[in-house]
């Protein structure tokens, strides 16, 4: 006769988990999250980080995305980007159905293309394919948040007000497409093709002249070239960067106990006699 | 000859140009990995909670717990000396968690607990990565060890009736004395001077000596009291609970929920719900150009598996353990690289039968343990535990099982330029 194993609450076996837990009301509290408007705050509070970087962000040791960019740390959790930026807007650019041929007909999935940005120097792009449109959009937003890059802006002429255009002429290349961005005076607007214009709007660039070469019909390369161009804005050495750099420790090394204890002990105490051990 | 020609002519048919037409209408993808089509197994999730009463986590109440001290199921035959040390640094391993997972149907597995121990040093874990790939050479030295202990319903340690949980339950016998510093392993060695404090290894004796035993040792020689820490923890073990020494992680109880009890979150996107119908293009139009954009930005295999991992845990982001002992169950891997294939999982070292996946530990546990985030602190993607399919019996009380650790690939950490 098959006897149900174990006393108390154990893993394995179906259904005994539910019965034992009902009293604590934990299942009810957790499962009851359907619909209902939740503020963004509560989602962030519920986030339990999975990576080391996530734990650093949650504990508040890292306060800005720039610290992460400085050390080229890979960002794996989109909640990190959420926590470190405000007003991140997203827009779905396109959703296409793609089909796969199976014996029983066609299987349709939806591919969503999302641009995310805060209009203030951070922009990201994400693509995701899923069986339902909503899932694809959600996944694409997450992927877009993970690919956020910083964009440097500067002035065309007088340094009045906030930066509004690219700091200098920069060019980016992908495949055969090269995109050249040239600083423009205020009021010029973004002079670019439809899709890169959207990306530049999300990046927070107000005026820019662009010039492209190559097979821009291949939109993939075209958009990647604009992205590459935006990445290069921070790579360009301008006279502001002529000062000698002070290298800093990465966040992983910054918060060790070792660094804080270094100042106290200089001389090691003499090794002590520990009494022998018998079995 | 004519008849042959006629036959071959008859077999020739005119087929419509279906292939070309379809390609014009709709984009036919290459076959992809069907990650989303997997049927979902009924997984049980474990969550950590501060225990309402630490006495509920003693071994005669068959607890599920993480951190703190292990509640040994068999309080007498604890794991031997060589299996309790880290294979690389030689320090005794630290208790990570234990779960009570009995198997129905077999008498010998009425009580069955799995214990996971780990060395808290990341350097040892990185070396352990090499070892877990090369399991074939005998029993390799590891820094992550899993022990399985099982007992029949009638056994010399616990009563055959279920515990009443009203404070009157008692174990039937006291266990062996444990180490005074870690409270985890058997205290087989005595301090040479006071002959009363017990240790499991010289390293723990050295640490206890430095942090206070030096001054107390002579006092103990004089007094008559004995410090007794037994295998079932009936005595008071407050020295470990306040966590002043770093030998144990903070103690939690593991609470079990079914994964299916959690609803999918309904996302509240800004414009997605209203704008989708307008943006979804009709079937017979594809933007060739935009298709190429999508191909460029589509994530690679590692990112895709990470994305589906995140999606799955987002239903219950606080989970620390996933349990599923079905034959078809597969662990939820965060990364594509570093997964074991069938051949990389060794056979059971006692009965030589196959191992099957039982449960996996999630990295959220590190957050709850408050593990620091420097370069030598622990960090893993997931730890998957494979146990003997037959849950074999043998004379060894605590049998070792196989743990597979998947860690995030190391990033090159270079000092960065300070820009303005």
UniProtKB/TrEMBL annotation, chain A:
Keywords: Ribonucleoprotein, Ribosomal protein. Residues 88-151 form the S5 DRBM domain. SUPFAM superfamilies: dsRNA-binding domain-like (SSF54768), Ribosomal protein S5 domain 2-like (SSF54211). The keyword Ribonucleoprotein applies. It comes from the Eukaryota. Residues 1-45 are annotated as: Disordered. This is Small ribosomal subunit protein uS5. It comes from Rhynchospora pubera. The lineage of its organism: Eukaryota, Viridiplantae, Streptophyta, Embryophyta, Tracheophyta.
UniProtKB/TrEMBL annotation, chain B:
One of its GO terms (cellular component) is cytoplasm. Keywords: Metal-binding, Zinc, Zinc-finger. InterPro entries: PDCD2_C (IPR007320), Znf_MYND (IPR002893). One of its GO terms (molecular function) is zinc ion binding. Signal peptide: none annotated. It holds the Pfam family PDCD2_C. Residues 18-42 have a biased composition (Acidic residues). Residues 179-217 form the MYND-type domain. The keyword Zinc applies. Residues 1-42 are annotated as: Disordered. SUPFAM superfamilies: HIT/MYND zinc finger-like. This is Programmed cell death protein 2. It comes from Rhynchospora pubera.
């Amino acid at each position: 006769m098959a006897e149900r194993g174990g006393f108390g609450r154990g893993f394995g076996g179906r259904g005994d988990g539910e019965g034992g837990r009902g009293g604590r009301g934990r299942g009810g509290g957790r499962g009851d999250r359907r619909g209902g408007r939740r503020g963004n705050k509560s989602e962030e509070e519920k986030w339990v980080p999975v990576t080391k970087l996530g734990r650093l962000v949650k504990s508040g040791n890292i306060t800005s995305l720039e610290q992460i960019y400085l050390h080229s740390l890979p960002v794996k959790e989109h909640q990190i980007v959420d926590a470190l930026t405000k007003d991140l807007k997203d827009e779905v650019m396109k959703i296409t159905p793609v089909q796969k041929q199976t014996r029983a007909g066609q299987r349709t999935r939806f591919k969503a293309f999302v641009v995310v940005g805060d209009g203030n120097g951070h922009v990201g792009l994400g693509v995701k394919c899923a069986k339902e449109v909503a899932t694809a959009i959600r996944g694409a937003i997450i992927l877009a948040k993970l690919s956020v890059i910083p964009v440097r802006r500067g002035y065309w002429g007088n340094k009045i007000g906030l930066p509004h255009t690219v700091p200098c002429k920069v060019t980016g290349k992908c495949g055969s497409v090269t995109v050249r961005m040239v600083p423009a005076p205020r009021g010029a607007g973004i002079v670019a093709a439809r899709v890169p214009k959207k990306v530049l709007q999300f990046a927070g660039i107000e005026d820019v002249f662009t010039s492209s070469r190559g097979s821009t019909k291949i939109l993939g390369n075209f958009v990647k070239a604009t992205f590459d161009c935006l990445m290069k804005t921070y790579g360009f050495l301008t006279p502001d960067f002529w000062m000698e750099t002070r290298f800093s420790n990465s966040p992983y090394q910054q918060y060790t106990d070792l660094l804080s204890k270094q100042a106290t002990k200089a001389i090691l105490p003499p090794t002590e006699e520990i009494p022998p051990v018998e079995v | 000859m004519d008849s042959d020609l006629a036959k071959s002519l008859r077999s020739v048919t005119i087929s419509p140009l279906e292939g070309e037409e379809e390609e014009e209408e709709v984009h036919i993808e290459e076959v992809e990995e069907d990650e989303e089509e997997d049927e979902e197994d009924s997984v049980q999730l474990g969550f950590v909670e501060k225990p309402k009463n630490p006495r509920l986590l003693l071994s005669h109440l068959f607890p599920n717990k993480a951190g703190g001290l292990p509640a040994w199921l068999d309080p007498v035959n604890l794991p031997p000396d060589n299996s309790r040390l880290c294979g690389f640094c030689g320090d005794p391993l630290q208790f990570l968690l234990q779960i009570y997972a009995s198997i129905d149907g077999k008498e010998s597995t009425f009580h069955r607990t799995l214990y996971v121990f780990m060395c808290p040093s990341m350097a040892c874990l990185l070396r352990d990565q090499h070892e877990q790939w090369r399991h074939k050479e005998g029993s390799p030295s590891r820094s992550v060890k899993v022990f399985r202990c099982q007992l029949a319903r009638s056994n010399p340690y616990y009563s055959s009736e279920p515990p009443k949980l009203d404070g009157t339950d008692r174990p039937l016998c006291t266990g062996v004395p444990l180490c005074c510093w870690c409270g985890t392993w058997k205290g087989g060695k005595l301090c040479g001077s006071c002959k009363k404090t017990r240790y499991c290894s010289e390293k723990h004796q050295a640490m206890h000596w430095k942090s206070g035993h030096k001054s107390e040792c002579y006092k103990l020689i004089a007094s008559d009291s004995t410090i007794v820490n037994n295998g079932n923890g009936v005595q008071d073990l407050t020295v470990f609970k306040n966590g002043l020494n770093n030998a144990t992680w903070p103690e939690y109880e593991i609470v079990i929920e079914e994964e299916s009890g959690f609803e999918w979150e309904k996302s509240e996107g800004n414009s997605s719900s209203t704008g989708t119908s307008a943006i979804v293009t009709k079937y017979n139009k594809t933007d060739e150009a935009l298709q190429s954009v999508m191909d460029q930005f589509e994530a690679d295999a590692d990112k895709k598996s990470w994305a589906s991992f995140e999606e799955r845990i987002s239903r219950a982001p606080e989970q620390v353990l996933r349990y599923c002992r079905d034959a078809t169950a597969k662990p939820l891997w965060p990364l594509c690289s570093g997964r074991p294939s069938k051949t990389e999982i060794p056979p059971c070292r006692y009965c030589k039968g196959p191992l099957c996946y039982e449960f996996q530990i999630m990295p959220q546990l590190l957050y709850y343990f408050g593990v620091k985030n420097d370069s030598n602190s622990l960090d893993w993607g997931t730890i998957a535990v494979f146990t003997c399919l037959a849950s074999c019996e043998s004379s060894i009380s605590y049998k070792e099982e196989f743990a597979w650790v998947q860690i995030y690939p190391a990033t090159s950490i270079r000092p960065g330029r300070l820009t303005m």
